[in-house]
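Ticket 4471: requesting a sanity check on a complex prediction with pyridoxal-5'-phosphate. Repro inputs:
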Amino acid sequence: MKNVTSAVCTECGARYAADPLTTVCPACGGILDIEYDYDYIRSSLNRETLKSRRDYSMWRYREFLPVEGTSRVPKLRVGWSPFYKADRLAEVLGIKTLYIKDDGINPTASLKDRASAMAVVKAEEAGKNIIACSSTGNAASSLAGNAAAAGMKTYIFVPERAPKGKVAQLMMFGATVISVQGSYEDTFRLSAEAIDRWGWYNRNAAINPYLMEGKKTVALEIAEQLDFKMTDYVAISVGDGCTISGVWKGFKDLYAAGFIDRLPRLISVQAEGCCPINTAAKENTAKWRPQEENTLADSIAVGVPRNPVKALKAIRESDGIPVNVSDGEILEAMRLLGHTSGVFAEPAGAAGTAGLKKALETGLIERDASCVSVVTGNGLKDVNNAIKASGEPILIPPSMQLLLKEFRKIGDSHQ
Ligand SMILES: *Cc1c(COP(=O)(O)O)cnc(C)c1O
Ligand SMILES: [Zn+2]
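Returned C-alpha cells:
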C-alpha cells in the first residue's frame, strides 16, 4: 500500500507495518491507528480528478483507504448515500442551514456497511474466507450481507433476545447464526473462543482499525457532496465510539491532503440512559466509567464502549459538543425526520438530529450556523419503535360516515 505508512498504537505509540491480521498492538494490546502519506495522496488525487470518477461508492476514495492496489472491490454498492438540503427540518429546528446524510440508504440499511465492506476486503487480503462476529444488530447484518456478496461464509453469534428483524436479515444473507441462551457478554465470550479455535477473521466490535477506515468514507462523501465547503458542525450518534472517530479521521485526512480548508466541530450525541463517552467528555477526562444501558436506541446502548480513546480524542480535537438526549427526544426526532423530510430513521439513526435540536434549544450552538446531521440506520429495522414514535393509523370499518367522523375528530376539514 503506497498510500499507507504504518499502523501506530494509540496507547504506547509503537509503530508497525500495516498488515491485515495485526489488529491490536502486539506490545500492549492498544488499539491501532492507520497513518497515511499525505504527499503521496496529494500527488495522486485532487478535487478535479475525484469529481470525474464514475465509481459512486465508498471505493471512489481508494487513495484514502488502506487496501492493496490488487484487492478487488466488493460487489455490493456501499456508500455514496443520499445527501439532502433539509430546509423544512432546518426551519422547524431553528437553524439557518441543515443537511441530512442518509446512511440508512445502504445495502443492509446502516452506516455499518462501510465497516463491513472493509472487513471483507481485509479478510480476503489475509487469505481468510470465513468471518465471524458477535453483535445483536447492524454490525452483524452488514457483515452477513457484505460477506454473502463476496462469496464468504459468516458465523454470527447473537444473544437469544436479539430483535427478529435483524435476525431475519442474518438468515436471509445465509449466515450461520448461533443464538446463545445467555447474556451478550456470554455470547461475546463464546464467539471469541470459537474465533480462536478455528482461526476465522474477526470483525468483533471496534478494535479492528480497518473498520474505522471504512466508516470514515461517510465524512469523505459529506465533504465532496458539500463541494468541499465544510459546514460549521456535524452531528452524529455515538455507541462504541468507532463511527465518530471514523468521521473525524475522514475530515482530518481531507484537511491534511488539502481537500478542505477547515474542520467542522462534532456534536457527539448519546442517550441520557447510556452515555459513558459523553460523561467523560464533559468531565474532560479520558477516564470513562461503565454505565447501564437504559435506552430504546439499541444500536447506541453501549455501556462499555470499545473505542473510547479514539472517540474522546475526536471530541476533544474537534472542540466537539457532547449532548445527551432522552428516549422521548429521540422518538420526536424520528417523527420530525419523517414528517419534514421523508427520511425514516431507526432510533440511533435519529439521535444525531435529536442532539442537534437540543444543542440549538440550549444555546450550545448558534442559530445562524450550518450543520450536517448523519442518519446512521434505517427505521424499517426497528418497526416497534417506529410505531411508538409515529402512532397508530385510523382504524375503521369501510364506511364514509365513519371516515367523516374520524376526520372531524382529528380536525381534518374534508367533508
Ligand atoms: C453502530 C451504530 C451507531 C454508533 O456507532 P459506534 O461506532 O458504535 O459509536 C449509531 N447508529 C447506528 C444505527 C449504529 O448501527
Ligand atoms: Zn501499544
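Notes from triage: The chain has 16 helices and 13 strands. Leaving this open until the requester confirms.
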